[in-house]
Amino acid sequence: MKTSKIFKKATIYTFLYISFVSCSAQTNNFENDLKNCINEEINKYASGIYQKESIYFYVFALDIEKKLMDSNLIKNNKKEDYINLFDTIEKEKSNSYKAFFEEILIMMENKGFDLNSFVINNAIYSKCPYDAIIKLKNYKSTSYYEYFSQLNSIMNNGFNNQEMILNLLKSTNQKEFSNIYYRAPIILLAILNMDIKLNPTSEMKKFRVDDKTYLKPKEQE
User: Fold this and answer.
1) N or C: which end of the chain has fewer CB within 10 A?
2) Distance CA 45, CA 55 (A)
3) What is the enclosing helix (H) or strand (E) of 213?
4) Quick one: residue 199, left, alpha or beta (phi over 0 = left, psi -120 to 50 = alpha)?
5) Residue span of the signal peptide, if any (predicted)?
């Protein structure tokens, strides 16, 4: 009887260990696939258009985040800080972040990172997440699927859709948000929102290509 209980416990622990290792392996594979895809797409664009050196997107995002902290636009990398940051961008005068934004633009230009490039933004918010996620087992039940689905919806409905941004941030737990693979698209999204506020364009309209919705400026009458 005692031996049977020990065997059952050992079986349970073995199962839990295998499950943990399997989940960890899936996560690592996804993050590597995502990173490699985004870096490849960005660098293909940067080298082809600007003949610039290699960009490592997640390292670049951390550099931007550090400058956000140095500029006192965020205190740390908690999601509450980013909720407050988007609120600042939306409601406060642009002089609170204009100097920071101009510094980031110079960083981007030096690296050949085109903030408003469809190729780059599509890689980060749509193509690469999708290509990496569908390789996962039961991918629709993963937290990554839900997160990047919401990011893709933000891209398709306007990068400055404050309601969708707030819903995304609130629905993401802090453990997930502490992972740069979750946080990096949000960091870039903040810069895109600064750009929209500082450099407003004409009113946008939706159009569809291959069952996907995109935005473009409305033609003037």
Assistant:
1) C
2) 11
3) strand 212-217
4) beta
5) 1-25
Strands (E), 93-167: none
Task: Compute the C-alpha angle 52/61/153, nearest 5°.
Answer: 105
Cβ atoms 191, 109 nearer than 8 A? no
CA angle 79, 130, 185 (to 5 degrees): 25
Within 10 Å of residue 187's Cβ, how many Cβ atoms?
A: 22
Cα distance between residue 177 and residue 143, in whole Å: 11
Tell me the C-alpha to C-alpha distance, in Å, between residue 41 and each of 15, 24, 179, 210: 39, 26, 22, 20
Convert 194-209 to b/e letters by CB count within 10 Å (16 or more is b): bbbbeeeeeeeeeeee
pLDDT single digits (tens) 107-157: 999 888 999 999 999 999 999 999 999 999 888 888 899 999 999 999 999
Residue in the block written with tokens 């839990």: 16
Q: Which residues form the domain of 122?
A: 30-216
Q: Which of the four pLDDT bands, split at 50, 70 and 90, describes residue 6? A: low
pLDDT for 219 = 52
pTM, to two decimals = 0.79
1 located within any domain: no
Q: What total number of domains does the chain contain?
A: 1
Does 9 fall in a domain?
no
